[in-house]
Amino acid sequence: MLLPLHLLFPLFSSVVFVFGMLNAKRAISLGGSPWTSTVLANFWLAAGWGLCGLLTGQLLPSAGWWQAALVALSFVAGQVFTYFAYQHGDVSVATPVFGVKVIIVAVILSGLAGEPISGRVWVGAGLATLGVGLIQAGAAAGDRSDRSMLRSLLTIGLALLAAVSLSLFDAGLQLWGRRWGAAVFLPAMFVCTGLWSLALLPCADRPRKLLGTPILAPLLIGTLLMALQAMSMSWSLSRFGDATRINIVYALRGLWAVALARLLSGTFATAERQHSRSVMLLRLIGAILLTASVVIALSERG
Question: SS3 for 32-63, per residue?
Fold first, then answer.
């Protein structure tokens, strides 16, 4: 069975996300600030979609700007939590946890539509909890010190907060993006994202700190890739809706993260190269369970 055309967008985003975050994680480990990554990625999005809006000449009516601003705020919050999750923990720990986002999206959309939550969603939630537990076990097995345990718990907590924020973003984008039209809503929403991000500028690195340092290259590559995958996801959600299946495919980034973080650990100097095979196997099993949880929870909606 061929994958529906609109699901190729989240598949593309799931792969690009991992490469973007590996570069962003590298920039942060070299001394860059997570605030810088957040602001720069959002400015790329604001510039790209703002240019699209200017070229098409289609402007969002004034009645829709508060919706665009609200969706943008949830996106910025999700970005902030995402980058801080990667500052404090491994890519192979944080990324699989984002897989629970698809269940949160289903719960939000069910609530807005007044529909009961199916038994499959609860089964998926149970599997997701087990998956997160295994990932936590994999994180703890790498270093059993109290400090490491707290760091891994903080990473998972931040990843869950990011998942909630970005679930609200997805739900708002599906509801309001489709109502106004993707070509009209997305430029306004991402311009608002850039405006919200201005409040984060005082926390970001100054350009003179970055110029001529090893931080700059992975920072630019990582934020551009993160902006690119966000554009792909945003377009598919606002153009086609179908947030549940789109997020199922996007959740595959958890699998890619565990595999690629270890495979490319030498290139990106990630902590995964220091972990044993048993540690990475626990994380892989956790990522598989998280992926299975969203497929089970939402398969009836396909």
Answer: CCHHHHHHHHHHHHHHHHHHHHHHHCCCCCHH
